From TrEMBL:
NCBIfam families: PRK09589.1. This is 6-phospho-beta-glucosidase. One of its GO terms (molecular function) is beta-glucosidase activity. GO terms for cellular component: cytosol. Keywords: Glycosidase, Hydrolase. Pfam families: Glyco_hydro_1. Belongs to the glycosyl hydrolase 1 family. One of its GO terms (biological process) is carbohydrate catabolic process. It comes from Liquorilactobacillus hordei. The active site is at E375 (nucleophile). It comes from the Bacteria.
Length: 477
């Protein structure tokens, strides 16, 4: 029976806009994350036209990792981290996105950050872009609906690949590129692709076109990266939430299969360089005449990913409707229903540890590529007790149950797994709601939803627990 590899990458994962803060320091430009207000579980974040003085924008300060990274990395090292994933804020490097020259001060920040990680033997795992892009590219070019974005992105990618060619080995191009498939979420269209859908515009058509340009940009970046350093491992990054049928009724089973196909066609393209046939049929049924050139098709085939990085939080259940179309594709209808066999988190995310093993097997069977769990965790409210501590047994339970399934997948199913990174090892701003109170960390940060607090870092109970897990390479959980 195989065990976790000796060099298994245990650690944690974050994103520039959710922790760095310092939104206007050292030449940084305004990113799309900077025009998103604070929301709540019930009230969506607003996307404003520029920055409005009366609104709260939690990403402006984040947890001020920009000025605290040394202290924070020291804590990660104390837990024994082998890897830390974060993203590069595109706007620190190219403040407007279409600038001719990169911003040296931004480049220096990441030089220092990566050096600090290496000081402790922590491998940086870097996402080129995680839910952000220069806001200027949205205003001037309409975001990824514009083919010009490909050259802006590849210039950014080339700059950072070159600069950090000896400091970073593991890269990912776009975070959760597949999130935007759901037409129900206008937030994803904005955060993934900088799309603000205009009146009378066909959102789905625009989403597919934007996605295509991103896929081409990703493939070009992979080719550029491999030329700069053939040892680079450049992966895709996908959101994975298994979709189960509500009953064995074949219609429900097929609906679940179709939704899994629909949510993961990006993985098909990024791993094989080809669009799946069912999707091409869908484009022609809908009369979508996408701008996909023969040159694009060559680029996609020549720039495939080295591994599959994915996030896993929850699973979903689906029920086919009475009047499903023949292709079972209903992008604007919500067929997702509550799983009555499982409990939900405080934010109504279904907790399903076995689903993680299912996900690992599903990816493995379809793509035969190394897998990397780059996000997993429980968003929960924490409170400081009278002893000044945070007793987060609920978080330990969640992670323990998921790690148990990871081990089973490696030991019994032979999954080739690079590592396991928890989401938000230090509390940070929630991407979905903009709240601070939705906490994932082993390290508490004193900051509330109104942006008030000392920013003091406090170790939670889970801190010492994860330290033991890593020290025993997953034996002592
Ligand atoms: C993933 C994203 O979707 O989930 C992260 O890659 C995000 O950026 C994480 O923070 C958790 O979601 P949320 O909404 O709880 O922050």
């Amino acid at each position: 029976m195989s065990e976790l590899k000796k060099d298994f990458l245990w650690g944690g994962s974050a994103a520039a806009h959710q922790l760095e803060g310092a939104w206007q320091i050292d030449g940084k430009g305004i990113s799309i994350a900077d025009v998103m207000t604070a929301g709540t579980k019930k009230k969506s974040r607003e996307i404003t036209d520029g920055i409005l003085p009366e609104k709260i924008y939690p990403n402006h300060e984040g947890i001020d990792f920009y000025h605290h990274y040394k202290e924070d990395i020291k804590l990660f090292a104390e837990m024994g981290f082998k890897a830390f994933r974060t993203s590069i804020a595109w706007t620190r490097i190219y403040p407007n996105g279409d600038d001719r020259e990169p911003n040296e001060k931004g480049l220096i920040f990441y030089d220092n950050l990566f050096d600090e990680l290496h000081k402790y033997g922590i491998e940086p795992v870097i996402t080129l872009t995680q839910f952000e892009m220069p806001y200027h590219l949205v205003v001037k070019y309409g975001g990824w609906r514009n083919r010009k974005m490909i050259s802006f992105f590849t210039r950014f990618a080339e700059t950072v690949f070159n600069r950090y060619r000896n400091k970073v080995k593991y890269w990912m191009t776009f975070n959760e590129i597949n999130n935007q498939t759901s037409m129900l979420n206008k937030w994803s269209l904005f955060t993934n692709s900088g799309l603000k859908i205009k009146a009378k515009e066909d959102a789905e058509l625009t989403m597919f076109q934007a996605s295509h340009y991103e896929l081409v940009a990703s493939s070009l970046a992979i080719q550029i990266g491999h030329k700069i350093n053939p040892n680079f491992q450049i992966g895709g990054m996908f959101s994975m939430g298994p979709i189960y049928p509500v009953t064995p009724d074949p219609k429900n089973v097929f609906k679940a299969q179709r939704l899994m196909q629909l949510n993961h066609w990006y993985v098909d393209v990024q791993s094989s360089g080809r669009y799946p046939k069912w999707l091409k049929q869908y484009f022609s049924t809908k009369g979508y005449n996408l701008d996909i050139t023969l040159i694009d098709e060559d680029i996609l085939r020549e720039g495939t990913i080295d591994y599959i990085g994915f996030s896993y939080y929850a699973s979903h259940v689906v029920e086919a409707s009475k009047n499903e179309p023949q292709n079972f594709i209903t992008p604007t209808a919500n067929n997702i229903i509550k799983n009555l066999t499982l409990k939900d988190s405080e934010w109504n995310w279904t907790i399903d540890p076995v689903g993680l093993r299912f996900a690992l097997n599903w990816f493995n069977d379809r793509y035969k590529l190394p897998l990397f769990i780059v996000e997993n965790g429980l968003g929960a409210k924490d409170s400081i007790t009278e002893d000044g501590k945070i007793h987060d047994s609920y978080r330990i339970n969640y992670l323990r149950q998921h790690i148990q399934q990871v081990k089973l997948a490696v030991e019994y199913d032979g999954i080739d797994l690079i590592g396991y990174l928890t989401w938000g090892p230090i509390d940070l701003v929630s991407a979905g709601t903009g709240e601070m109170s939705k906490r994932y960390g082993f390290i508490f940060v004193d900051r509330n939803d109104q942006g008030k607090g000392s920013l003091k870092r406090i170790k939670k109970d889970s801190f010492n627990w994860y330290k033991k897990v890593i020290a025993s390479n997953g034996e002592n959980i």
